[in-house]
Amino acid sequence: MSIAPEASRYRYMDAVRDAIADEMRADPRVVLLGIDVGAGGGIFAVTRGLYEEFGPERVRDTPISESGVLGAAVGAAATGLKPIVELMFMDFLGVCFDPLLNQASKLRYMTGGGLSFPLVVRTQTGAGRSSGAQHSQSLEAIVAHVPGLKVVLPSTVADAYSLMRSAIRDPDPVVYVENRTLYSRRDVRPDATQEPAPLGSARVVRPGSDVTVVAWSRMVEVSLEAAETLAGNGVDLEVIDLRSLVPLDLATLLESVRRTGRMVVVHEAVQSFGAGAEIAQLVTEHAFDDLRAPVARVGAPAVPMPFSPPLEALCIPGVDRVVAAVEQTLSRPGGRSQ
Amino acid sequence: MALIRAFETRVGALYRTSAIPGFIHTSVGQEAVAVGVCRALRADDWVATTHRGHGHCLAKGADVDAAMAELFGKASGLCKGKGGSMHIADAAKGILGANAIVGASVPLAVGAALSAKLLGTDGVAVAFFGEGAVAQGAFHEAINLAAIWDLPAIFVCENNHYAEFTDSRTMSRRETVAEIGAAYGVDGRRIDGNDVEAVHEAAADAVERCRHGDGPALLEAMTYRWQGHYEGDPQAYKPSDEVDEWHARDPLAIARARLEERGVAAAVELDRIVRDAEERVDAAEAFARSAEYPAEEEAFTDVYSA
User: Fold this and answer.
1) N or C: which end of chain B has fewer CB within 10 A?
2) Who's near A90: CB < 8 A, 6+ residues apart?
3) Does residue B302 lie within any of the structural domains?
4) A313: domain CATH number?
């Protein structure tokens, strides 16, 4: 899975762009807004070509004005457009949280369903390139904590395409979190005629019998590498790509953990008060009798992401930490499941 | 204006007897802004307003019974009782809603103006906000967006002189809000917000320009908040001579005197309008009191579309 077909030149970032382009072709109400998304093609070149095809009205460069732009996108969503807003780094939520926290998430509810907000906030995370603590945060738990928002985190080329199409078609606000370290991952070009995957459907990436590992975004790759390592020791991991935190596909997690009896949740975000804690607790509540060990978590330590390369590497969850967590759950009484 | 005055006065009284829960911010004294602006709008134009938004909703055509029921938190309210005073809205009437975050309505209206422009409706969008909101970044970002994109957005500042408990004249070196327009290349005008004709004339002109692609526009309507920031605020911060001065400039009295002077309406007719408004609000109160609270399952619906 982590090894894309060598023949393909089609990248994760191409999939994001093509999903947007295909939806823009299909629906004139879809517009794209953001800093440098237009003529410049985006700072990661994800949106390159869209401005040329759809023009400056629908692919709209904005000032460095996230609060105003996101607020306007919320208003536009309520009044007939289907805006996609690029928030260049997820860290920038700090300057524009109100339109998500108090507007897009709540106005549907507070108007008794009178208004709807078909809005996609595209953003990206991904530590590992010394971007510093203000350009490296995975803040999905903060967004997932707000009722009314959906949170999608694609890990593959296929999902980058499929889930973006679903996010744009969704009638509710979706925060779509890309990972910049995955942008150049390659795979075959997704089939545009296929129905996109529904939001809230986890995917079993690697079936296995001993321990369930739940991950999303880049940590799916890390977990698959851990699975390869552990396979050499006779440990068979089941790896699940959660794909979205909200809606959460708890059923797939429970089905898996009832077979394996053990679970490790892996995320790049800070571990404390993170999404892993919520998942661990939900699984414990619903499958306590099937668990042979406490659900374990692997996440970043509770420090701002360091700049210095060796310190940063220390703070990003890696294969060794996933392996260690799996081994720890296996060391509990009850032995390996059989 | 008589209806808004009657509605707001009643709402204040009902809040004091605990019939209405939550927070209430009334717009008594500011009625001419709501009416003067909204009468210049079409049904499909949008307005986005503030925590002090009942008047704008009524002026834009919200049903009085359903508005009152909303304030009571009843199922037959405009938002099924799930919004309340600070979140009263009616999409069918072009009302994006009151908003409890100061300044937040301004970018929402800019978004509605963007929709109007891109969907080619020739509609306009109005953002109502107080002079206190002008200290928020959201206002500045939003007016700049409207300016660079030539949007049909009308920024209507109701300058009632107080940002919550604080005299807003002490919170800025600027003399006016209108002059901010120049900083963004937007036509800014200060108008008498207690003169409904002056408001309407300025609003109609702004609407006309916006419909022809010459937006946005900024209007600063000078007015005064007769009540406290919220119902129950003792208002110790307001000098009494200032209060008296503004009470003498009651927007309803100004309109009434002008109608009588021009022979448009006789005193008896104007009295009847006021009485009718009272009766309309009586009926709305009765409707709201007798309405049912939402069913328990309503707590869990409308979070997502499906």
Assistant:
1) C
2) A123, A124, A125, A137, A138, A139, A140, A177
3) no
4) 3.40.50.920
Select from A67, A81, A147 the Cβ nearest to the Cβ of B138.
Answer: A67
Same domain, A105 and A153: yes
The answer as to whether A7 is a domain residue is no
- Over residues B72-123, the pLDDT tens digits come to 999 999 999 999 999 999 999 999 999 999 999 999 999 999 999 999 999 9
A67: closest chain B residue by CA = B138
Give the pLDDT mean for A122-147: 97
A162 and A218 both lie in a single domain? no
Residue numbers of A annotated as active site: 66, 135
The residue written with tokens 């552990």 in the block is A230
Q: Which helix (H) or strand (E) holds B255?
A: helix B251-261
pLDDT (tens digit, 9 = 90+) per residue, A197-244? 999 999 999 999 999 999 999 999 999 999 999 999 999 999 999 999
Closest-CA residue of chain B to A56: B149
Q: Indicate the number of domains in chain A.
A: 2
* ipTM confidence score: 0.96
Asked whether residue A164 is domain-assigned, the answer is yes
> Out of B107, B115, B304, whose CB is closest to A71?
B107
Phi-psi region of B294 (alpha: psi -120 to 50; beta: other; left: phi over 0): beta
SS3 for B275?
helix
8 Å CB contact of B97 and A110: yes
Partners of A77 on chain B (C-beta within 8 Å) are 111
pLDDT tens digits along A164-192: 999 999 999 999 999 999 999 999 999 99
Residue contact B301–A113, C-beta within 8 A: yes
* Interface subset of A 24-53, CB within 8 angstroms of B: 29, 31
Residue of A79, A169, A174 to mutate, testing the B interface (most B Cβ within 10 Å of its Cβ): A79
Is A115 in contact with B97 (Cβ distance < 8 A)?
A: yes
What does the pLDDT average to over A323-336? 85
* Band of residue A1 on the pLDDT scale cut at 50, 70, 90: very low
Domain that holds residue A274: 203-330
Residues of B in contact with A109 (CB under 8 A): 82, 302-303
Instruction: Calculate the alpha carbon distances from B64 to A12, B54, B73, B281 in Å.
Output: 53, 10, 14, 7
A-chain CB neighbours of B144 within 8 Å are 63, 65, 68
Are A164 and A253 found together in one domain?
no
Let me know whether A57 and A178 are in one domain.
Answer: yes
Q: Is residue B159 part of a domain?
A: yes
DSSP-derived 3-state class of residue A76: helix
Instruction: Label the pairing between strands A174-179 and A120-125.
Output: parallel
Domain of B173, in residue numbers: 2-294
Query: Domain for residue A155, yes or no?
Result: yes
Q: What percent of chain B has pLDDT over 90?
A: 98
- Looking at the fold, whether A124 and A166 belong to one and the same domain comes out as yes
Residue B255 in domain: yes
Asked whether the beta carbons of B149 and B117 are under 8 A apart, the reply is yes
Count of the separate structural domains present in chain B: 1
